[in-house]
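Exercise 7.
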Amino acid sequence: MNKLFSCLIFPYLLTLGGCATAPQNQVADADPVKTEPVEAAPELPAKPFAINSLYDLLVADIALNRSQFELALEKYLVQARQTRDLGVIQLAARVADYVRDNNASLEIALLWIDVAPEDPEAHRAALQAYAIQGDAINALLHASWLYTQEADVDAFLAVTSIQMTDAQTNALIAAYQSLDLSAEQQPFVMLASAILYRSIAELEIAEQTVTEFLLLQPDNQSGLLLLAQLLHQQDRIDEAAALIGDALQRRPEDRKLRLQYARLLTITNLQQAIIEFEALRLEDPADQEINFLLALLLHNQGQSDRAMGLFAQASQRPSLSADSQFHMGSITESRGDITSAIKHYSQVRFGRNYLPAVSRLTVLLNQQYGLSAARQNLRRLRAEQPEQAVTLFQIESNLLVSLQKPELAISILTDGLNSFPNDSQLLYARSMVAERQDNFALAEQDLRTLISQDENNASALNALGYSMVVHTDRQDEAYSLIKRAYLLNPGDPAIIDSMGWVLFKLGELAQALEYLQKALDMLPDPEIAAHLGEVQWVMGNPEAALKTWQQGLQQAPDHPIIVEAMDRLGATP
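Solution. The predicted structure, written as tokens, is:
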């Protein structure tokens, strides 16, 4: 029996730290603290294990090769505790990391340190495990060990990236500042403190602290970039650009500094920014982030041909593909190449430009192939991406409204509500279409449903109150709804306009004038101008009314509400 176990387990012992199936820290990038990939444990000479240990290790090895990671971890963890064998501990650590069992990762890391207290990888494992748990103080213990013993500045600063409350951040600052470090090591406490002060919006203290650090480490890249970011946050763009520009005079080869300098110049000097991005691209033409950023600048400057080529290159990088395809779609659409635009917009399947791309794609499909094709594509997208279905229903509704098909728009929104009962976005969208169709009953029904779900929904309260003013004679009730909305959000110009208009309907002209003038000052909108002009006219000030209306018509010639008010009141320019 013993001989059989020896024959079975010997290959395992030879590959204890490097199983072909075992993962190699594949999830580290998702964690707040990054560590170097844990190297495979060295091949260890065969050593005696108890029979029970040999059996567990064999089961774990087979489970690992069958991708049964939970079972493998269970067995390796038991044997790591019992044998305290370094190879078993390291393999258990990798499996725990892969399955994201952070409690096991922390236990194994602490056992690893107990067995091999001078092993930097053990301390990195503990640092990462504590960081994932949000335990910055304990993470700092291991980060400071790596800093003092290995001069690992990155590990020392990595603790600052852990998500914390303001109180925890202040405690971590105090912990950094209480470390017993040599005079040569002390400056990086200032840099860590500055990073943490910035995270809790103590910008002035952060600036002062990092400035003191740079007096001791004038060319430190991290310090320079941090100070530039702090200056940027305080709208001191010229100072930030000058700081990085001066540093580049001393360190012209520093790519990160040049990239930050180029980014800052996009705010202050677009032509110079293009020059800097061109220099970065010349240095590394395969850097797709640089290609993308340079393409954006060139596109902004009207150099669409060159921008198109750079966007095409940048699209080779998966994380930039969607945004690059969106901009290529925009360029080809502007050239009138609808077929190519449709092709590019269709390639945008995720990211911040997904919904804008779908909106443009919907319009172009309707233009090129007809309404049926556009709607069929939206149905397909709703099936493929159900998490976006609510917004896709709204995009279809918007298309139908733009084509003067409000009944179909209400129908598709109703279909959406059948799939997503009482969804707030769909209810609000349907109420707006219904209101424009003079279907106040449906609009009121949807808006009251919204208010029943959230009695403090200022937008719904205002919409219902304003619709009530326009479509009914229930002015007192409308005033009550709009007043509730105003008290919830007194800085919204749309609500202020509604308040002015309902007061006008109630005969409170002076108050109405005050609210409407305030609304127009905040938001020069033609509909607000229509309301203010009418109040001015009724109050006997036709010159002011005509001026207000004219300003609105300059923004939107033939605006229907302004034109209707002027015709009804007999006003002529």
